[in-house]
From TrEMBL:
This is Cytochrome C biogenesis protein CcmE. Its main location: membrane. InterPro entries: CcmE, CcmE-like_sf, NA-bd_OB-fold. The keyword Membrane applies. The lineage of its organism: Bacteria, Bacillati, Bacillota, Clostridia, Eubacteriales.
């Protein structure tokens, strides 16, 4: 095998690997999360996979067990509800009725077991009530 042919094959392999990584990155970025209703409709396809699910945290569904650091709640989206089980610290009271993203997978009992919980608190992004802008 000539040196030129080996160089061409090596270049082809590297370009193929870069194209694959670019495609995977674009695919993962475009699917940052699915809504509760999308998750429910695609449950068979997403079974056994770590998935990010977004919805509104239902305030009346929140139950926290301090002894086991277990938080149970439901995410809702477009009339669909998803029961969530999360082991970790209890967020502050501002998380109720806020938009949330959970990362995890469905267990055999139909409960979504979340390893990660991200709360989006809209009040953090609102201007202060008496704020004035300087010009």
């Amino acid at each position: 095998m000539t040196k030129k042919l080996r160089m061409q094959i090596g270049t082809f392999v590297i370009l193929g690997a870069l194209a694959y990584l670019g495609f995977q990155g674009a695919h993962n970025f475009s699917n940052y999360f699915v809504t509760v209703s999308q998750y429910r409709h695609q449950l068979r396809r997403l079974a056994g996979m770590d998935v990010r699910v977004q919805g509104t945290l239902s305030a009346q569904s929140v139950h926290y067990n301090a002894a086991t650091s277990t938080l149970r709640f439901s995410l809702v989206s477009n009339g669909e509800s998803l029961p969530i089980l999360y082991h970790g610290a209890m967020p502050n009271e501002h998380f109720k009725n806020a938009s949330a993203i959970v990362k995890g997978e469905m267990d055999s009992h139909g409960v979504f077991v979340a390893q990660k919980l991200e709360i989006q608190c809209p009040d953090h992004y609102a201007p202060a009530p008496n704020a004035t802008t300087e010009q």
